[in-house]
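Quick check before the chapter quiz. The format below is the same one you will see on the exam, so make sure you can read both the input and the output lines.
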Amino acid sequence: MLPIATLALCAFLPILPAQDSGYRLPPPEIVEVLDAAPTPDVDVSPDGKWMLLIERPAMPSIADVSRPWLGLAGARIDPVLAMPEQPSFAHGLVLKSVEDGAERRVPLRQGARIGMVSWSPTSSRFVFTLAGETATELWTQDMRELAPKRVLTGLNGVLGSSIAWLGDGDALVAKVVDAERGDKPARPLAPSGPAVQESRGASTALRTYQDLLSDTEDERAFRWNATCKLVLVRLLADETVTPGQVTLGKPDMYVSVDPSIDGQHLLVTRLKAPFSYVLPWSLFPSVVEVWDLTGRVERVVIENPLGDAIPMEGVRLGPRDIQWAASDPATLVWVEALDGGDPASQAEHRDRWFRQPAPFNAEPVPFLTLAQRARSIRFFGDPNLVMASEYDRDRRWVRTQIVDITKPGEVIVVDDRSQNDRYGDPGAFASMQGPYGSRIVRQDGEFLYRIGAGAAKEGSRLFLDRYSLRTRTSERLWRCAEKTYESVVAIAKSSAVEKPTLITSFETPVDPPNYRLRDLQSGAMRVLTTFGDPQPRLRGLKQELITYKRQDGVELSGRLYLPADRKEGERLPIFVWAYPNEFTDAGTAGQIGGSPYRFVRVRGASQILMALHGYAVLDEASMPVVGSPETVNDSFLEQIAWNAKAAIDELTRRGVGDPERAAVGGHSYGAFMTANLLAHTDLFRAGVARSGAYNRTLTPFGFQSERRTLWKAPKSYLELSPFLVADKINEPLLMIHGEKDNNTGTFPIQSERLFAAIQGNGGTARLVMLPEESHGYRARESVLHTVAETIEWLDRFVRDAAPRTDQAPRVEPAPAPVEAGSPARPGGN
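Here is the expected output.
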């Protein structure tokens, strides 16, 4: 640990600017790759009959990213559009018929900026938003009409989704700006007084949230931007219904509005004062109510207090996860904690589900009690059937069961495994449009359908299974072919008699992703789209999924990318890119995810681009940390060193990498890993750390999966802070950070202080602060500059580095190895 005097010096050392300034560009071939227009996003209609192709630009400009926004109560708000801050918009919409492949472009005004797109439950139309000069507009496209129509102007999505469909798809409820809210609050030139906070002895574990309220002026600005009114919008005109808008209730800070399945009631959540200066708006006091369609309150479900007393990794008391049962016209469903909301407490049962049908005046009926914390609930066409999932944080274990609520002792367990067990994942159950327009579990007679990733040692082979409720067994109906990657996008048609028809996305390393219609009954296949290769320069890269082991026997893997012009036997400079993950046992830690047969595409400042520049890139290099969830970080440093050494050794063994010219990099927690590897090993010649956190005393109430506070585990927090061992970072470190990072814990000051500490101890570092950027980098100028900086840094300190003068790489001592397949130790996440 650094002496206090040295720490104080580091805190005030000036950060000297580099000689160069302005945005820089990487080599032209990399600019070409990043500037290529991406293939359109595809949104399939609920009935599977239409595909909406959504066209987007490659990257927004720095001018787009620099649009004014407000950081208030943990939210970033565009005050002009009354929406969350958004730098990039889609610019084109194309409708495509699945049946005959016919396409038609949705006519839009010149320079259209498309935000949200949403299909109606009946697939009869979709709505989308356009960003105007002074407000957000809502438009609708009826499938029977050629051109869209503007529905209203002035949507407000500051606190969440701005629209909610009624089940018939002919009406929706929208949150709109209150035209009578008055003028925008102006911050006074002189302060009206100090900002005051007070602690009254209650224990409140606080994460390091960003963009919080700081004074009464912020409170006024937040209330002004978040206040909106609810309007019921009729979209269809006929003899009995006239299109138009009806205002519901009074203007307020509405978070969400969710219509009941029959469209006769609304579940409304709104915020209340007092606000907090240390918590985001999601933890402010709130009220959850049931309204009728006139805005009259029928039932107050719960009044939530300020969420400052929720235990670490705990939940609120009282009803939570309040929703409508998708199988009933109007039945409320919610879950309540039985353990005080504290996961660290001992309890036989942690959660219980309740239901309450309209008119909501009878006592709520409990229908399912869970031993562990509720994770989700799904519904069937049969209102007596539910599918409930729970999570055991001590073992990181998931369990899903199908229950007939009229026969609580009879359950069908359909998933019971470690959360990290990729190979044992039986797949997720497919959904379908329910009788009331809601999504329910897709069921044909006795059969359900499971869509899975099919993870395996040779790479994922995605599948569709048919599960029988009668026999409780699965039958495999389809699996993607070997050496391809084909995923199920939607089930277009199914029945209890015939095998279903699927919409899939198909790709190989040389075939760009395109959509297909697969009739599993007849075996027929039809191509739906023919998107071309947007980045042909990447096709020359050689890619391979490689596996290897670290010194304690834990299996590791990574995606190896090599330049197209690499000669056999040539050893290239190495760039390892990784992100640490925690596991309770070595068996699941060594499992492989993903596939080596995917079509390589890059977005943003991808590390894969370094392979175009002549490096051997090991992307997604396994970085498992195995141990009890309560104490796993006590061996973090040793285990990441084992992982890193194993990666370099494997590339050396394969003859593709030069161990004397190896670099490591990562983003966020991967940046934290990178700084620690440079501080505690001599495996690498340089590092690239983007948007990281390096002083764990600045995240004292936990980070990543760490459950202990700084005061309960000071030794771990201090040893894991590369800032406190900056004098040991004796390899060049490039740090890049967005000046306006809003991610929890990764304040920009984290990079600024580590740079100052390295500089103060005579180390080599470079700090790049990207204007207007957040945790990830979005603007074209920022992305290209990040790639240029990375290339220049690694070329200078890795590719062209002089031979080492030391004798052997330094790897600090490690504890006893973790045995493969060892049982999970006590603890939890």
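If your answer matched, good. The chain has a mean pLDDT of 91.
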